[in-house]
Structure formats: C-alpha cells, structure tokens
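Open question from group meeting: does this chain pack into something compact, or does most of it stay loose? Before anyone orders reagents, we agreed to write out a predicted structure and look at it together. Recording both the input and the output here so the notebook holds the full record.
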Amino acid sequence: MNKLSIHFPNYFSSTITLLLCLLIAPLSFADKSEGFPGREKYPEMPFIELDDFYQGYIDNKYIVVDARSHFEYEVINIVGAVNIPLHSLTFNKDINALAKNTDKTIVFYCNGRRCMKSFKAAKKSKLSNILVFDAGVFEWSQAHPEYASLLGESPLDPEKLISKAELNKHTLPLSEFEKLILGSVLIDIRDKKQRRGNGLFLLADKSAPLDDTRKLNRYINKAIEENKVLLAYGNSGKQVRWLQYHLENKGLKNYYFMKGGAKYYRYDDAK
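Structure tokens returned:
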C-alpha cells in the first residue's frame, strides 16, 4: 500500500512535469475473458444469458431493475429499466412495492461480470421470481445499442463509450497527481459516509459527491470558466469512471483522477 504522510506535498513546486504512459493496449468495454465470477459466489441466485434476456426483454416478459447508483444509471442504462440502488435506504420498500404490482419476473443488472451489485440486490430482495443478468449494461449496450441509453440519448452510439485505455490516460499516481494541485480545482467525489468529514489534501479539496449534481457542476464549471485543471478522486478507482462521462459531455478535457482513490492511501504519523 502506498502511504501518504501528513506534510505539505509536492504541489507547491513551480515546475510541473507530467509523464503519461500512452502505450496502453486498448481494452474492450466488456472483458469477456473475465468469466462470470458471481455465479460461483452466489450459486443460489438464478441468472440469465444475454440472448435469452434480449428475447424476454423484447417480448415484455420482464421488469428490469438497475441496482447501481443514480449517477451511474444517469450515465448509461438499459432503456425502460427502473433504478433502485442497492445501497438506497429504501431498497427493500421500493423493490417490494415493485414486485407487489407485477407478475413479471424481475431481472437485476449492474455494470458487468465483476460487478456483484446485481447478485447482492437479488439476494437482498428476498423475492422468488427473479433473475440476474450478470453480463451487465456494457455488454448489453454493445450487443443492443438500440435499447440502451447513454447520457439520456437512445439509441446509444457505441463509439461514445469510453474505453479503459482512455480512462487510464487521465489517471495519475499520487506523486504526479499532487504536482498539479496548486492552481487546480480539486474535488473529492466520495459521499459523506466515505469522506467522514475530511479530505486528503489539507483543505485544498472540496467535497462534491457524485449524487450532488448541483455542487459537482459548480466546481466543473469553475474549472472550465477559469481554464484550470480539474482533479478528482473517489473512494476507489471505480467511481471516477462515471465522472469521466460527465466531464467529456461538458467539454472538459484537462482533467485527471488519482489512481486507486482514497482507499489506496492512508496518513502516517507526522515525522
């Protein structure tokens, strides 16, 4: 684990040298070599394959539930899906209300094969007439873009999906990230529970949770209007993936994310 000591970091240096590795092999949006690990981890949960799900979807046999956060849902979703976030305080109330008003099978999905939210949501629901579509929204979007929505637009244009390689181009290790802080707009996109009242960079960062669109846009617009670099970090390296779509959609190009997020670093006692 990398360690972050309590000290004034390197971002007060006047000379900034930024080295990005561009020799990153392009990765697909849905890595089919990953298999389906959730099926082994949750053997009691019934799943459905892409082709079978598609046929039932167009035949209107299913109620489709997106178990991800509202921000993720707003970025990309299966058309017609109901967003009931797994971590919502009203998850059980909402899913029970949905099940009470339909005889259709409820199908849960999340991001992709390594995302366990769909399995966790199915298990948490305690319903019997359910399935898990564990291929996820990205495989669905590539196979059936006419029934997918990206940033509110459908049919989805697969060319607008952001690859992992493109995300990596905007991701920096701490040593490079902190060199850019002076003169930048630095935001912490963790929610209040994850942040626990404090940022990582001695008051240089501002809290802008992903689901607080008003606050998030305030800082994004500030970076655009003042022609500053936007820096962002989340609890892990996964949250920034969704923020990247929002930034690109707003036309911001000069932005970077901290590799690994806050969970990857910890403060040491001052020496």
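Observations to bring back to the group:
The chain is about 30% helix and 15% strand.
Residues 1-28, 267-271 have pLDDT under 50 and may be disordered.
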